[in-house]
Amino acid sequence: MIPELTYALIGYSVLLAVVSLILALRNRAAGRWTLVGTALLLVLLLVQTVVSIVLWGQSPDTDGILFFGYLLTALLLVPLAGAWAYAELTRWGPAVLAAAGATVAVMLERMDQIWM
Amino acid sequence: MTGSHRTAGPFRTERQDVAHDHDSAHQPSSPPRSTREARAAVRAERQAARAARSPYSAIHTGPGRTLTAVYGLLAFAAIGRATYQLLLKFDEAPFAYSLSAISAAVYILATVCLVIGTRVSHHLAVAACVFEAVGVLVVGTLSFTHPEYFAHDSVWSTFGLGYGFVPLVLPFIGLWWLVRVHRRVAASATAA
Predict the structure, then answer these.
(1) How far is A82 from chain B (nearest CA, A)?
(2) Phi, psi (5° rounding) for residue B113?
(3) Which of A70, A78, B80, B88 has the fewest CB atoms within 10 Å of its CB?
(4) A17 touches chain B (CB under 8 A)
(5) A39 falls in which pLDDT band (50, 70, 90)?
(6) Residue B126, C-beta contacts closer than 8 angstroms, at least 6 positions apart
(7) Of A94, A78, A89, A42, which Cα lies nearest the Cα of B33?
(8) B165-171 — which CB contacts under 8 Å span 24+ positions?
(9) Cβ of A100 and B84 within 8 Å?
(10) Given CB atoms, is A73 within the 8 Å cutoff of chain B?
């Protein structure tokens, strides 16, 4: 993992969580830009996946099953949460996105620890 | 079952929420999301039919669906962890890892029962939430008083610290929700 990319990803998922939380508190449904933002998180996670596979040889002590287990879970979680927020026309769509964004941030932090 | 009972409680009903449902401030002149809203309308119709069959289900209201999503998330995390521990590291700490497996099973049970929403599944969900609440309190306490049993983490050790205390809070929110649903169903039964 490239530290800068990881920190950018953690920062972005926290940002998505905070924006979603504000939307939920202001009683807004997830709009187009919220959904595009969620898709961007998925793209960044895919970049992270490619980078991790390319740099895999540089980190021989990393537990591969654990690391890619976390990464695959995050890759599943983000589109599921996005689909949930798309289907939900109430404030509770962004609420799910906020929960997912916070979870992905924590998972990325765990992946960073596993990689070390 | 009509939608009228949904107005009870601190949450807005879906219809009121939809009335406020404008796009975020980023996009003042957004076109109507007709496809999305049409799909949502079709789902709302199906849901009204389902509501008659599953009066206790959490999926009929926005907050209930969110609760289900968070329960599903925790169930997902618990399954992942338990599978990894049981398959690859069971010999290291059989007690802690069996606990992980049991808690994962109970989280799945609670999630499924929240969705099904019959009378039986309602009682099962209550039992699952009570089990989770007792589990996190007992294991959380034991992980401080008898740390030798809990050298390896489970979902419930140190009151769910590794999961942002979600396992500590969620069963109580779940129980509060289930009691609320029970009152609502009881009220609509007497009104009918």
Answers:
(1) 12
(2) -65, -35
(3) B88
(4) no
(5) very high
(6) B175, B178
(7) A89
(8) B166/B70, B166/B74, B167/B74, B167/B103, B167/B132, B167/B136, B168/B136, B168/B140, B170/B70, B170/B71, B170/B74, B170/B132, B171/B129, B171/B130, B171/B132, B171/B133, B171/B136
(9) no
(10) yes
Distance of CA A62 to the CA centre of its chain: 21
Whether residues A81 and B69 touch (CB distance < 8 A) is answered with yes
A99 touching chain B per CB within 8 A:
yes
* C-alpha distances out from residue B5 to B19, B115, B192, Å: 19, 19, 11
Q: Chain A: give the shortest CA distance to residue B7, in Å.
A: 15
When mean pLDDT is compared across A15-19, A31-35, B188-192, the lowest value belongs to B188-192
What is the predicted pLDDT for the residue at B32?
52
Q: What is the mean pLDDT of each run of 10 residues along chain B (192 residues)?
A: 42 43 45 74 82 81 89 88 86 82 92 90 94 92 83 79 86 93 87 74
Q: Which residues contact B69 (CB under 8 A, 6 or more apart)?
A: A81, A84, A96, A99
Q: Which tokens sit at B150? A: 């809990």
- Return the pLDDT at B33: 60
Judged by CB atoms closer than 8 Å, whether chains meet at A92 and B26 is answered as no
- pLDDT bin (cut points 50, 70, 90) of residue A78 is very high
Chain B residues whose CB is inside 8 A of the A95 CB are: 66
CA distance B166 to B28: 36
ipTM over 0.85 threshold: no
Q: Is pLDDT of A21 > 90?
A: yes
- pLDDT, tens digit, 9 for 90 and up, residues A93-116: 999 999 999 999 999 998 988 888
A92, B66: Cβ pair inside 8 Å?
yes
Distances (CA, A) of A64 to A5, A33, B35, B65, B103: 19, 35, 42, 34, 25
B73–A103 CB contact, under 8 Å = yes
The DSSP code for B36 is: H
